[in-house]
Amino acid sequence: MANVSVAAEWQLLYNRYYRKPELYPLRWKNIDLSRNKVACAPFGGPIAVIRDDSKIVQLYSESALRKLRIFTSSGVLISDTVWKNPGGRLIGMSWTEDQTLICIVQDGTVYRYNIHAELIEPNVTLGKECFEQNVVECVFWGNGVVCLTEGGLLFCIPDFKVMRPCQLAETGAEDLPNCMAVIEPKYTVSGNVEVLVGIGDRILIVDEDGVQTVEGEVVQGLVQKMVVSWDGKFLAIFTHDGRILVTDINFKGVLLEYNCESALPPEQLAWCGLDSVLLYWDDTPLLMVGPRGDPVHYFYDEPLLLIPECDGVRILSNTSLEFLQRVPDSTVSIFKIGSTSPAALLYDALDHFDRRSAKADENLRLIQKSLPEAVEACIDAAGHEFDISRQRTLLRAASYGQAFCSNFQRDRIQEMCKTLRVLNAVRDPEIGIPLSINQYKLLTPSVLIARLVNAHCHLLALRISEYVGMNQEVVIMHWACSKITASLAIPDAALLEILLDKLKLCRGISYAAVAAHADKNGRRKLAAMLVEHEPRSSKQVPLLLSIGEEDTALMKATESGDTDLVYLVLFHIWQKKQPLEFFGMIQARPLPRDLFISYARCYKHEFLKDFFLSTGQLQEVAFLLWKESWELGKNPMASKGSPLHGPRIKLIDKAQNLFAETKEHTFESKAAEEHAKLLRIQHELEVSTKQAIFVDSSISDTIRTCIVLGNHRAAMKVKTEFKVSEKRWYWLKVFALATTRDWEALEKFSKEKRPPIGYRPFVEACVDADEKGEALKYIPKLADLRERAEAYARIGMAKEAADAASQAKDGELLGRLKLTFQQNAAASSLFDSLRDRLSFQGGATVVCIFVRRVRDCRF
């Protein structure tokens, strides 16, 4: 009997059953669909209602001001607002995929509202042509719209997320289209919007690039209404002679043709899934036409609105909301009158089991081989049911059959129970989202949770998130932000406790984002208290800066040890604060201070000098001045007596004065003083010689250069000014004269007095210049025999080297000299004989000493 009562509600269309359960009796009052413009969001979304200003209606107890009201699918009022938007009559209204209400008025202005009837700025206009010609019709699809103007122009917004209007190609027709239908971009080959336009007895395909005429004889005569199927593969057409045609989207052939009783175009034409088409005229039954067989009529005595879904059509009337859908095959197999399918027998076995009848076992034996399919059918049928008691019974039947089925997936029933609990929770009239299981799978749980959050159903969204194992952070975050917005009368401290009590439920939640929302709502103190609980410095510090807590931000950035964060704070404070205030903030913090100094040394010398002066670090200012003088010296103009040398010297003088004020930097003060003195002398030398070869060279190089140029007086002046020692003076002059190959002056210089450095530098200078004859003048004057032997060896005089080494009685030296002359056999033999002689003399001397010591011991 239960099967009979269920199947009695079905209607047969050819070989397919359809059912029309009531989802809700609507809770709204005094809403007449015929007097209003209505927009219903798909996937069981909200319903927007506003009085139709294109109709003359009688006002009862309502205000003359029009109100935009938003209801749930069960008729519960969510929000309302007074419509005060300019731009002329409201032409079209629809919901986007993210449940934003789009309203297009006559002059082409697009107004957007959220689900709480709050206007979203900024408004968008379709362009100057729409403003001048006025919009007369709008065709919406999931996330876009096509608008028709009085001049026959087509304008499109392909994506409401981007809101970039564009004009489609002109049709060239003089008359306005009879009807339009849109093929969504995801179903076209080009990836662009294509509009099917019925003009006269033609159908045109219009996009941005051009216009095509549909060829063939599939459609003949005037087309009055068109609608594209949910999957973009089929097109339903109502012709001038009252026929309803269904073709594929490429117009290859007619799949359905039915002659309606009326030639008047229907008010609404909609697909019911992919198997049938609904036609609705005022004051006539709702007509459903299928591929074959007689149509089905549904009778109503009130106006209707058809809301297409992926698996059916929601039918909205003044008093109720119904869902017309094809009965799933699993449900048909169980509840069809006279069904003997395994699923029906399993369902019947449960009934016998509840009545303690032995026939339950008999039924199970009959379907033993098909038991897994029967269990799966019961589970699937339960998922498609809206009635909770029937869901429970079907799942019990599946569980009963599973107990006798060893090879069935055990968690299948558990998954379906979880899904149905979610669906039943959102189908509750207080929530009003009547999703079917197919819609739920297509929508996905994450989008459903986002819609619940958007509707401020935070508790349910949180429980569903926890139940399906999804991250709860988004829900709690949105709740916290909404709580802050709605709790202007609650003190900051009390509100903080309320927020923390919930925010701590989710680990890793961004307190900074909530604090940012508090600051945006003018609650800066609450924001400061919230951000203290943010564990991530990378999010905490920028927010502290945005709410004016620079000192706390600097402290947190320093504690994190992240130099990038510290620099972020430093640059922010640097731009916002006065220099002295900025210096005071970083002086007591080593890391920010050192980072600032490192940066300023490279890019902000003047600012760094101000910092050092404010902190009394005069020596650091002096070092900066000294560095600036060197940088100034790198200027290519700082040559040939350039006036840039004057500023350089002044900078060094300033540095010297600053060094002189501190006892610890006496050396630096003296060095700066001598540097300035040397620069002055070098500058004078460059002016006098007209050669840019002196500045920035050392004292030794300056002396050497003067001698090379023959300016001995200037060299002596530098020696005197900087108290160059005699040894250093001799070294410099010897090698400078050797460089100029002035051997006569070198010899004369060697005879002025006994050189304090000896004659070895003279020898080396001559040898380096490959002047052996000049070297022979100084080698005999070498007092050290070993040096003399090595000097002779360097100029290739083996005999003289051997004599000097022999006089020095150094066997090791003789060995080294032998290696030097190893290619000269005679020289090698000479060194060997001398070394042997030294060895013999040394051995004899040792024997004499030993004999003498023995003799002394005897006596």
Molecular structure report:
47% of the residues lie in helices and 18% in strands. The chain has 34 helices and 30 strands. Strands 1, 2, 3, 28, 29 and 30 form a six-stranded antiparallel β-sheet that branches. A four-stranded antiparallel β-sheet has the order 4-5-6-7, with no helix packed on it. A four-stranded antiparallel β-sheet has the order 8-9-10-11. Strand 28 and strand 29 (312-316) form a beta hairpin.
Short description:
With 859 residues, the chain is of the alpha+beta class. It contains 34 helices and 30 strands.
Blueprint of the fold:
Blueprint: H1 2-7, E1 11-13, E2 16-19, E3 22-25, E4 36-40, E5 47-51, E6 67-71, E7 77-82, E8 90-95, E9 101-105, E10 109-113, E11 119-125, H2 128-133, E12 135-141, E13 144-149, E14 154-157, E15 166-167, E16 179-183, E17 194-199, E18 202-206, E19 211-213, E20 223-228, E21 234-239, E22 243-248, E23 254-259, E24 268-272, E25 276-280, E26 286-289, E27 296-298, E28 305-309, E29 312-316, E30 320-326, H3 329-335, H4 342-354, H5 359-366, H6 371-383, H7 388-402, H8 412-427, H9 437-443, H10 445-454, H11 458-468, H12 473-486, H13 492-503, H14 511-520, H15 524-531, H16 537-546, H17 550-560, H18 563-576, H19 579-587, H20 590-603, H21 605-614, H22 618-633, H23 645-660, H24 666-689, H25 699-708, H26 712-721, H27 726-740, H28 743-750, H29 760-768, H30 772-776, H31 785-794, H32 798-808, H33 811-820, H34 825-858
Helix pairs in contact: 3-4, 3-6, 4-5, 4-6, 4-7, 6-7, 6-8, 7-8, 8-11, 10-11, 10-12, 11-12, 12-13, 12-14, 13-15, 14-15, 14-16, 16-17, 16-18, 17-18, 18-20, 21-22, 22-23, 23-24, 25-26, 25-27, 27-28, 27-29, 31-32, 32-33, 32-34, 33-34
